[in-house]
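Can you please make up a whole protein chain along with its backbone structure tokens because I've never seen that pairing?
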Amino acid sequence: MCHLIRPDQTRCCTVQDHPLSLLSTRHQGPHPRRPVEEWAGQIKASIIIQGLIDTQEPSTSTAGTVSCCSLCEKLGETTPGALWCSECEVFLCKRCVKMHRANPASHDHEMCDLSGEVKVKRRRKAVCQEHKGEVIKFVCKDCHKAACQTCCVLHHRKCESVVTMESVMPTMKYHLRKSTNVLTKKISKKQTLIRKTHKKIRGIAKTKLTVEHNIKSAVKRVIASIRQKEKQLMNEVKDITDKQTQQLKADIKLEEIEMQMYRQHCEFIDQALVSDCEMDLYDAYQAWESGAVEMEDVRDTEAADTRRIDDIIFTPDTDNVLKVLDNLQLGKIDVTYQDQGTYLPSPVLVDTIDGRMEGDQKNPLLHDVTVLVVDGVQTCVVTDCDNKCVKSFFTRNNHSCHSKLPLDNPPHGMTQLNEKQVMVAVPYSLQIVTVEVTPDLVLLSTITTRTGYYSLAVLNPSSLAAGACECVDILDMAGHVLRSVTTYNGDSLFACPFYMCVNNKGKLLVSDYGKTSVTCLTSEGDVVWRYAPAGDRALSYPRGITTTSTGDILLVDRDTRR
């Protein structure tokens, strides 16, 4: 029995509380990250565990020493002991052994031969702490306590089941061995788990190196791009400065030419001034008047036609660069978690519709359901097989309302055609009917088919899928079969494909409780994948199926209530 004790209660426990009690002192353990050895060192040994340890300790060894017979020693004799009685815990000589075995009270005691290299194991006797000196030999099953003979007389007289300790030993050994097997299996599982965890740690280290390498590669590519930008700017500066340098060198050349011409004019004028000929002076004057003015005009014209670089300045766009760097996304680190079962948030019951309406001949058997919002009114539409009708439930002006559309035969599968219309399969009539939801129900049209269909799903505005026994047909809106899907890789694909829906990618999902599978088809009827797990994950009786806006598949497995 396990006792739960509040901190404000004090209770002194002894080994008498239960023969299998393992009593230990509650203590504050070390931090979980500390070494295992530190944890083990903090665990206090229980009374019984300590007793077992004491029992296993060698108490007497015959190596090199000879113990005297305990009975002869009491008589003043020193006869060497030949055997050890573990029950009486005495050494006996060969003569006393015969007498010991002849005694009815000790004839079945276990004897240990001392002639060889033998370690004598002493038996620990459980002594009653209340009645000193008395050995515990009984167990009270009513009180779940071990007891001595005096305890039985004083405290357990009215108990109905007081047995000897020896009689319960086989049962206790059986349960202890069973517990050992359980613990051994748990140890094996823990060892397997530890090995797997170590493998994961190694995988994490490997993943870390790979991710770090990818990050460094991304950074290198970005740096290389920045280096390329640097190179482009450097080339642009070089082109501009080279052009400016060439222009300035050209200006210098022109200036040098003009200087040379000016010198020549000076020399010509000097010669004319010292000449005695008046005509030379006149020619120099005319040359000056015409040539100098023309040269100056040429310079002015050329300067007006050529754009000269005055200065070169680099203005860093620091603010924009910093903004770009702040918004720079080198990449994203995604973390995937171990699949331990993905669960949607727990649903909350808002309301319950039992499906009953006035005029029903039987209890409703609701087969399929869909919800439409018609002119802002949320409307629940269901098929009722036993009452051979389609029903709608809605709230109008704060009043619960309903509508019923009777049919000739039981309706089954239903699918939404548009915002205000549904299509319903009536297999026994070989019909597919179109119903308008206003939210009252109005029969719009009836299509006659060659097969009785139990499930429907609109694939696109011009085609729909219909499930019958052992096949799924792709139909046009007039009910003509465009393609019939029955086999896959030579094997029968369907048995009872009586529930289906279309996911957010336009693929058809078919729940088949006959094949205990879910099959995904394209809108043309080609198989994309098939889900039929085995073992613990095997489906039992798959029925209703639908998807979320993100593409998650919700499947009802009826018999396993999942």
